[in-house]
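Hey team,

Sharing the Cystathionine beta-lyase run so nobody has to redo it. Sequence (391 residues) first:
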Amino acid sequence: MADHLKSGSTSGPNTRLVSAGRRPADQFGFVNTPVYHGSTVLYSSADDLYANRNRYSYGRRHSPTIDALCDALTELEGAAGTVLAPSGLAAVTTAILAAVSAGDHMLVADSVYHPMRHFCDGVLKRFGVEVSYYDPLIGAGIAELMQPNTKAVFTESPGSQTFEVQDIPAIAGAAHARGALVLMDNTWATPLLFDALGHGVDLSIQAGTKYVSGHADVLIGSVSANAAAWPRLRDTHGDLGLTVGPDDIYLATRGLRTMGLRLERHHASGLAIARWLLERPEVRRVMHPGLEEDPGHAIWKRDFRGACGLFGIELEPVENARVRRFLDALALFGMGYSWGGYESLIVPFDISKSRSLPSVFEGPTLRIHIGLEDVADLTADLDRALAELRT
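Structure output:
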């Protein structure tokens, strides 16, 4: 936390983004915390060594560079503490390992990020953790799926690729009544647009690779915990030996400072293009909770403060060759498996092999990330490419 920003501050989100985690007085007045490269930390005396009186003991666990980002995220999340991981997936798996043990049962939303599902079906199964997948729209009905050994409920809202909005408070209430922890992948909204811990989540996960960094040049993840879940998360993270390179942490911290302004642009541009696509005859469905027509709009409007630039579309049924021509015709949309950066992206997806629930799609499906380019240029690019579907 910055020297001038006191704990419990009611400052606005952009003020906290700029101030949280900064201690210029500790850095000779420099605005940004420097990059500390180091593993070994020296003690000034044998007495300090035996009593472990140093502020830092080893570079893997803490450094001023690490603390700058962790403190900032802890402030933004309203958490008891935050740990960093070398990727968003590593953050997900760390949070899960902090929540379950052999013999436990975990409920997982059917719409989660596919690599996380692969971890559940592989590693967790080998370690004796049972996983059941549930309809992300189940809400308080999840109470009927709870077993005596259910220790965690994993949520992701909106859902990966298909953007279902979960009723997190209802799910959290049902889970906590049975003594289970609630985990949430909150990468889509970030703590600026959805207060995960405030809505009942115990472990809030972000792929900082996306909006925290914002520039498509960093792989990093974070997990923030409330007071009840923090000790086990802290210990699990330490036992796993996880660490992130200081240069990546520095870049993520630098990106964090402008995340609020970037999200405002992603929100406005994403909604504008989603509405434009909604009127296109080539588009069968637009999956964006910010649209009034979206099935999840009411819960999104109740719980969220805004939207990011990521959403999905279903095209009218058309052969795959035309979809490929459409993708190749785009000039401003790159094809790549990430999002959250300044650039617009588009990729096809197929949930038929990664869900327990049957697919409801009849046409090709695409995931779109709207970057920081001008909306008029992006719609013109899409308009030219959509002509390939009619050729």
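The chain has two domains: 13-256, 260-390.

Ping me if you want the raw files.
A.
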